[in-house]
Amino acid sequence: MLGVCYYPEHWDESRWRTDARRMREIGISFVRIGEFAWSRLEPSRGNFTFEWLDRAIDVLHEAGLKVVLGTPTATPPKWLVDECPDIIPYDEHGRPRGFGSRRHYTFSSETWWKESARIVEMVAKRYGEHPGIVGWQTDNEYGCHDTTLSWGAEDLKSFKRWLRLRYQSTDQLNEAWGSVFWSMELTSFDDVALPNLTVTEPNPATRLDFWRFHSDQVAAYDKMQCEIIRKHSPGRWITHNFMGFVSDFDHFKVGDNLDLASWDSYPIGFVEKFPFTEDERNRWAETSHPDIAPYHHDLYRAVGKGRFWVMEQQPGPVNWAPWNPVPKPGMVRLWTWEALAHGADVVSYFRWRQAPFAQEQMHAGLNLPGLDEWSPGGKEAMRVSDELAALGALPETSQAPVALVFDYQSYWSTMIQPQGKDFRYEELCFRWYEALRHLGLNVDFVRPGASLEGYPLVVVPCMTEVTEAARAELEKTKGVVVIGARTGSRDRNFRIPENLPPGPLGALTGNRVIQVSSMRPGLSDGVSGAVSGHAIRWREYLETSASVLATFDNGDPALTEKGKVLYLACWADAGLLAEVLELATKKAGVATLRVPDFIRIRRRGDLVFAFNYGTQDWALPADADPVLGEPVLKPQAVAAWRT
Questions:
Q1: What is the pLDDT of residue 489?
Q2: pLDDT value of position 371
Q3: N or C, which end of the chain is more exposed by having fewer CB within 10 Å?
Q4: What is the pTM of this model?
């Protein structure tokens, strides 16, 4: 259940066999290679030098390791960029993003698609049936470094083609975009311009379509690679390694191409990426926030249709955040067990040996740079290997009691028109997830319109456009549903619904939103009644035929109930959100176990795991007989017991 990322091209060939032997000795079974190797595989056009990779795969296979081979498309080589400059992406200011790092391509370039298909075909043909190859990774970290969207000539050409297929005529396009506003009407698809470099805000409907277009491009590009691999490598699975807090494309649509999802877990690095307060960042600097990794484990388990890997697990300090502290002792072990508790098939560490050169030389590995000497993280990985061997096979995961409906388009919509500067969809969903986990609950992520059958509690933090499929699932679910602000606030063309928000859910909730208010930092609106706390950032003014469970300070409805549907008309502070979700669990009959904010619980089959991110001891429940760890959970420790 453990793996590692390895770069044989970075090391003298004389070290490969020793590396492979040492991997096996510490319990590693899987090795990912090749995802950045294009310049070594094809140093000039048509000059293929596969022999070194042949030998590397043979060495790993002969040592008993299972190889996951990456397609090398994340790093087009210099000769290709020089020969085909139309593959280069452009930033929102119209500037080229050039060669010298990675992900320097736009998904819109037809030339890039042809070149990608060519190299993937060559690699898949050569290694597709090698007995050492058990799986494939397409590309590497789609969207990382803000590389989903591009604003160049190739993007405009492809965007026009996408719009023609979507709208058929400019009359339909103008109607969808509301182009009569500010005389933006077009008479030809050739008139379409990129939604950037405008004097003030570009048309939000145009921007949403531009985002949809790019998201579709990512999914189609990935599908192209998957089809080539499946043609030449039957019986092997395919994954892609998604990144944390990258929501610029619909990962569910890419997941439709894959056999399982994977993601790259850098919990401490993501503390700096997420909009935490400074106090939170300082508190969790050396452990990470207790929900960063679990949030993504549960999301990517959903993207992978129930299966996921951690393809890259942080084994020590990283190099790319504004600050890069050393994890507290025990955290690498904790993160590994936590991923397994959330259902990971494999946890793969990045990387085998710290590189003493180039951009990532400050990024830790399982071995110290240039040496056959274990790093502190490597020693913790060895401990996990021993514990896994002693514990035996882990039980299968089962459906959680709570479904969280997660919608990538809601992220795009609220980024396009936040209305309040600090309204961020990802943060809202994360805070709802955090509140549920404080109650000791397992949580499943569900894409809009997917089945909600069997969930006693369904939460929808925000879903700006409610499709017919999503509406139907929410209406037929037998569980309690909690719906958050801005849900149903736009239709498919980014218009306010005729019946006012929550649009298609008006009858289900009994509500109409008459107006909204975004509140600057420091302002709030009190809420009292069945729950109490404060609205921050955002509140709505409702007309309702539903029962009112709590009101704002001025007496307006803040929390309503119609049947089994609760509607929360604000961005709730931590106290209010906790009370709302605890009330919902009681109405749903879901058993909870409230834990301190530094403790997290996760159930996998009959095993219950506990994780301590804090600085204090925590006693396990009285009836817990640990099969891993001790009855008193020390800081940065893990425990597990059977139920």
A1: 98
A2: 82
A3: C
A4: 0.98
Q: What are phi and psi of 419, to 5 degrees?
A: 65, -35
Among 42, 312, 426, 582, the one annotated catalytic: 312
Which is nearest to 541 in space by CA: 495, 500, 492?
A: 500
Strands 241-242 and 557-562: unpaired
Backbone angles phi, psi at 80, to 5 degrees: -75, -40
- Of 353, 336, 354, 332, nearest in space to 345 by CA: 336
Q: Cα separations (Å) of 327 from 219, 269, 324, 419?
A: 35, 10, 9, 38
- Give yes or no: 312 in active site: yes
Q: Is the pLDDT of residue 175 over 90?
A: yes
Task: Please name which of 140, 105, 305, 138 lies closest in space to residue 226, comparing C-alpha atoms.
Answer: 138
> What Å distances lie between residue 619 and 167, 289, 330, CA to CA?
61, 21, 18
280 touches 229 (CB < 8 A): no
So what's the pLDDT on residue 614?
98
Nearest to 2 by CA among 33, 31, 40: 31
Considering the candidates 35, 42, 115, 141, report the single residue annotated as catalytic. Answer: 141
Mean predicted confidence (pLDDT) in 487-497: 98
* CA-closest candidate to residue 295, choices 286, 308, 285: 308
396 a catalytic residue: no
Q: What percent of the chain has pLDDT over 70?
A: 100
